[in-house]
Specification:
- The chain is 50% helix and 17% strand.
- The protein is of the alpha+beta class.
- It has 2 domains: 2-105, no CATH class; 135-252.
- The protein has a 4-stranded mixed β-sheet, with no helix packed on it.
- Strand 2 and strand 3 form a beta hairpin.
- The N and C termini lie far apart (103 Å).
Amino acid sequence: MNTNPSNAGSIKCNNEEVILNSNLNNLFLGSKCIAKSNSGFHFSSWIEDLGNNASRTINSSSTSSNNILEFFFDRLGLNSTDNNSILTLTQSGHYIANFVKIPSPIPTEYLVGLYSIIVTTIIGWSIPSIISSIKSRREISMFNCYHKLINNIYKDNKLDNRDLLQLNTIKGYISDAYAKGKISTEHYSNLKDEISILFQELFKEKINSLKSILNIEDKEKQVGKVKDEITDAYSKGKLTELHYNLLKERIESLNTTN
């Protein structure tokens, strides 16, 4: 196997570099060989050297070496592999990968400026996507962190005044993170619902405890106090409207006359 010109490229067979113009390569029928062009060259064709100045073309390039986009992508190392540069060995012989030099479609002095334009454009396309991806991962990480904190409060299936203090603290952290753009509106809404559920559970337990008060005057006093706490929690965004209304119905259903 060989290349033409000799400095235009290389050949790999079965993912191993071929020693050009040598019989030392361990190749078998069925081996897949690919011609890889060096910078400034373009794959042209595979030919079989038949001897006596005779040859036959096996595969020819399906792309044009005069294409300006291919020129720039080749210089930037972004060109994809031409499928016709792949040769499957079906018989023994002398095979040559032909390359052609890529002509510069514009004067060399303009290349630096054009490279800058192309690279800047590619970066301009990429940066918003990269920033968006980083921001999204950060928001998800924040959401998961607060979600775990909320779940840990109710892991023993019991809530008390100490848990109420923790809920208030976490609620403050979440509101602050949302205000600073560290969590999305959707995540903020979901976390508010989770916190509201726990506040609802706390107030349900308080309401249930009122049923055991026998003294009517004391009971009415405690009912009024819990009502005020529920209203205050709702006004501060600790309870959603749904949970607030459910708690109101529950506390108003208490028979305070008994």
